[in-house]
Each structure stands twice: as C-alpha cells, then as structure tokens.
Design goal:
Blueprint: H1 3-10, E1 16-18, H2 23-33, E2 37-41, E3 47-52, H3 53-63, H4 72-75, H5 89-99, E4 103-108, E5 111-117, H6 118-142
Parallel strand pairs: 1-2
Antiparallel strand pairs: 2-3, 4-5
Helix pairs in contact: 5-6
C-alpha cells in the first residue's frame, strides 16, 4: 500500500502555522484541532519546519511559562523528512521508526499535499493484516 491510499482515506488537510507565531498560539491550534504536530510555513508559503507537542514540552521545561511568547521558529524542527504519495507504507514506517518521529509531511512537486502520522501508518498496517488473514481463511475454507 502507498501513502496516497492513506491520504485517500484520511483526507489531505494539513494544519499549518506561521514561523513567527508564538508557542502559545501553536499550543492552542494543537489542542483545538486535537493533533500532535503542525507544519510550519514562512510568510512566503514555503515549508519551514514542523512543531510537535514534544517540542512545546521541551521549550516549557527549559524556560517555563517564559517559553510561551517565544516564536515557533525558535523551537520547531527545521530539518524535516518528507515523503511522496508513491512511497510505500512499509518504507514510511521504517523511516519514521529509524528517525524517531511521528509525523511526516507529504510533498509532491514542491507542494504540500498531506501529512501522515505514525497512527495512520499503524492503522493501515493493521487493516492490511486483517485483510490478509481473512483472505487466507477464505482460501483454506474453499480448499
């Protein structure tokens, strides 16, 4: 299965925030949207990085409430891994596991087309496994 199949099922909406927004604003976006990460963009629309709940927790651990008015740019992950819609779910799972991150933007021709979480990947793999098991049961029963 490919990344495009995950996006077909979950949708292509990507929540973004500007790099000069505050951590407090980012936390409100994450909480209100019930998501674990937000893609960060520059004012020109270019991809700047990604900010996760963990990034916010680290910032607060270092600076307490003084971190909340600081910019997202100061605490985001700048070097982010991306994937494309043709990538396999297995490859995606390996990249996320090896890189120890939980969210990966999907980019096609320099355009952001979606985001995939480790939860999306696990859900897809479970569905594939259940379908394979059902097919095997049907094959055995027919034999």
């Amino acid at each position: 299965m490919q990344v495009r199949h995950i996006l077909r099922d979950k949708g292509r909406e990507v929540v973004t925030i500007l790099s000069d927004a505050t951590l407090s604003e980012a936390a409100c976006v994450l909480a209100s949207r019930r998501i674990g990460a937000v893609v960060v963009r520059e004012r020109d629309g270019s991809l700047a990085g990604i900010l996760s709940e963990r990034d916010i927790v680290r910032a607060i651990a270092q600076a307490s409430v003084n971190a909340l008015p600081q910019s997202v740019a100061r605490h985001m992950t700048r070097s982010i891994a991306t994937c494309c819609e043709d990538d396999s779910v297995d490859d995606l799972m390996e990249m996320m596991t090896r890189g120890r991150f939980r969210h990966m933007p999907v980019v096609e021709e320099d355009r952001l087309t979606g985001i995939v979480s480790i939860g999306d990947v696990v859900k897809t793999r479970i569905a594939e496994t259940v379908q394979e098991a059902q097919s095997l049961r049907e094959y055995i029963a027919a034999g």
